[in-house]
Amino acid sequence: MNAEIITIGDEILIGQIVDTNSAWIAEKLNLLGIKITQITSISDTEEAIYGAVNQSINRCDIVLMTGGLGPTSDDITKPTLCKFFGGNLVLHEPSLEIIKGIFGKRGLQVTESNRRQAEVPSSCEVLLNKNGTAPGMLFRKGGKILVSMPGVPFEMKGLMETSVLPLLKEMSSNMVIIHRTVNTFGIPESFLSDKLQAFEGKLPNYIKLAYLPSPSGIRLRLSGYSSHSETLNSEINQLIEYLRKEIPEYIFGYGNTSLPVVIGQILKSINATVSTAESCTGGTVAHLITEISGSSAYFKGSVVAYSNEVKTSILKVDANVLNENGAVSQQVVEQMAVGAGKLLKTDYAIAISGIAGPDGGTETKPVGTVWIAVASNNSLVSKKYIFSNQRDINIARASYTALNLLRELLLQEHLELNENIFGEKFE
Fold first, then answer.
1. Which of 385, 388, 377, 379 is nearest to 408 (CA)?
2. What is the pLDDT confidence band of residue 427, given thresholds at 50, 70 and 90?
3. Omega before residue 358 within 30° of 0, cis
4. What is the pLDDT of residue 74?
5. Can you list the domains of the chain with their CATH numbers?
């Protein structure tokens, strides 16, 4: 069973608000085994609404619409739906009583425009909206259904949970949709795709692989669609096991697990602490670590050594080394890491120095050049990276790369951790 989502409103098209309704609806429908085949955002015009409804209802089994049901003159969804499904606008007394109750609690009179919100096409089944003034409407045509709901998120969710989802659950077949995610870091998307070319070629037609890249890594999402839930779940689990053996060095977690979460789990498991010394990232690594609840158990603090003076006076970087090699160099970043570990008395320390841009680059050190070091009581690892020419991307990528370098060192020093899976393996 397939479904499409239509969101109505110029405010979405001009970027004034972000369409969160579609993501919420899609997630709920996936749990019922209903595929979302298209999401469309359209303007508040009769032509756009009529055209979108006509196309969607001919393509799929279920159409869910949000928005365009306000009290103002620019909300013309209901007249347009009358034109498409037939009938005329009639007053729905139960909805009017809800409207009177809402305004009565505020000590306000119901205006004519408020009364109009209780008008619905005579061709629809009314879905009472107990959280707002615009009722939901259910239309049936040729075995297909269309549900029109308010665009206000909490009103839409209320209607979905009380009226729409129970109906769709009855309608949906025994098909299930299962998503599993494998999180990777440290390899470009094109290289990862090349490595997994043979793997993708062997996938059955009811299981798809998607690549979801971001500065925090590449998420590999396996999506399966079948009427046999247990069999499909087992097949996808076997595919994940294959990935673990094929690209073990790049996998850091599963599901919604992030690098900061994994770092925290590892450090807590070995009762170790970490600190950071950051230049071009300006404390971003520390921020990522401390976003995780309970990070005080393993994170002691950070030095944002943006100036050379702070590098030498606080982190004890040798001034001669700094002058000879420059702030963005292996020698300096290694001394920053060692200095941070000593200063804050931690078992591990991360240091970053680079040219975030857009200015400051040279021929030998272009914008995006970043040195990262990780120090421990037993090891000192440093690597040079060249990212992009965009400042925000460089900061984000450098921060996550630093966390991954720490993860790699932790696994190297504690080989027994390689047998453990940090993060939820299966969503």
1. 379
2. very low
3. yes
4. 66
5. 2-171 (3.40.980.10), 176-254 (3.30.70.2860), 260-418 (3.90.950.20)
Taking a C-beta distance cutoff of 8 angstroms, is the pair 312, 319 a contact?
A: yes
Name the residue with tokens 């094109």.
190
Distance, CA of 249 to CA of 240 (rounded, Å): 14
Predicted confidence (pLDDT) per residue in 331-343, tens digit? 999 999 999 999 9
Residue bearing tokens 């075995």: 143
Tokens 């990262």 sit on residue: 372
pLDDT band at 383 (very low <50, low <70, confident <90, very high): very high
Number of Cβ atoms within 10 Å of the Cβ of 377: 10
Burial of 412 (0-12, 13-18, 19+ CB in 10 A): middle
Report the amino acid identity of residue 180: R
pLDDT value of position 175: 83
pTM: 0.81
Q: What is the DSSP string of 267-304?
A: HHHTT--EEEEESTTTTHHHHHHHTSTTGGGTEEEEEE
Residue 204: closest CA among 183, 182, 234? 234
Tokens of 332: 């300096």
State residue 414's pLDDT score. Answer: 87
User: So what's the pLDDT on residue 418?
Assistant: 60
Q: How far apart are CA 117 and CA 69, in angstroms?
A: 7
Burial class (CB in 10 A: 0-12, 13-18, 19+), 269: middle
Do the strands 380-386 and 369-376 form a parallel or antiparallel pair, or are they unpaired? Answer: antiparallel
Contacts 24+ apart (CB under 8 A), 110-114: 111/71, 113/71, 113/72, 114/71
Residue environment code for 350-361, b if the CB has 16+ CB neighbours within 10 A, otherwise e: bbbbbbbbeeeb
In the block, tokens 């060249």 appear at 386
Note the pLDDT tens digit of each residue in 47-63. Answer: 999 999 999 999 999 99
Per-residue confidence band for 426, with pLDDT thresholds at 50, 70 and 90: very low
On average, the pLDDT of the chain sits at 94
